[in-house]
Amino acid sequence: MYPSERHASIVARARAEGRVEVAGLARDLDVATETIRRDLTILERRGNLRRVHGGAVPVERLGLEPSVREREVVNTAAKDAIAAAALAAIGDVATIVLDGGTTTARLAAMLPTDREITVVTHALPIASIVAVRPNVRLHLAGGHVRGRTLVAVGPWATQALSRIKADVVILGANGISREQGVTTPDVAEAEVKAALAAAARRVVVLADHSKIGRDELITVLPCEEIDTLITDTEADAELISEIEAAGVDVVRAPPTGTHAPPGR
Q1: pTM of the predicted model over 0.70
Q2: What are the residues facing 123 on neighbouring strands?
Q3: Which of 145, 192, 228, 242 has a CA 20 to 30 Å removed from the CA of 236?
């Protein structure tokens, strides 16, 4: 059986049964469990399946995009490493725009307390982290707040952001690929993310390995408009090379407590 045929079989079985297990697929398709795990990773990046412990479920079963609480407990070590690398990458900036998301929230918690810094955000979790800090001047863009992601969207948010030009913006991503750039499943959130990107001189995207190569419904901005992508060391090397070919500087953040490879 060719890989494409195996992939089609896995997706069809997941949709019919609601879940597939690595061990069962390896047995029934007569391949190694490592092969099945690679297949599931590929299918997740394509948006066909979502990996769960021991197997995968079809994206249709998951319904809407995960909530902040659900995402908070996924890939925590990678997110910690990415946030630490982002802090080092932005340097001594005076003004920073922070997108919503669980990785950007980790960065917000790491921001320095020994110097003044201006933070612009449309995300309630980010605002709650930095609002109590005496060294932070917070500007909160308002609008309709999405309950699933706790960020403001709509014309109030985009108009407020259109008048800003900060040193750097830190964007989260539901998916990023060479072909589609940064993507997200919600139209309103895509619009405000694009406004965030336009509100700064430098664009830095944070995305753990599960987001690399994944395409969601709406493109926020192409790879050519990204200055730096910070991901973790588990990101697929071939997919990263494709993004680098678009002119993006990619930082692979090592686990916290270790040192980055030379030149990164």
Answers
A1: yes
A2: 151
A3: 192
What is 70-253's CATH number, 1.20.1110.10, 3.40.50.1360, 3.30.420.40, 1.10.579.10?
A: 3.40.50.1360
Tokens 């008048």: give the residue: 163
Q: Where are the domains of the chain?
A: 3-62, 70-253
Residue 55 parent element (H or E): strand 55-58
Q: How far is CA 263 from the centre of its chain?
A: 23
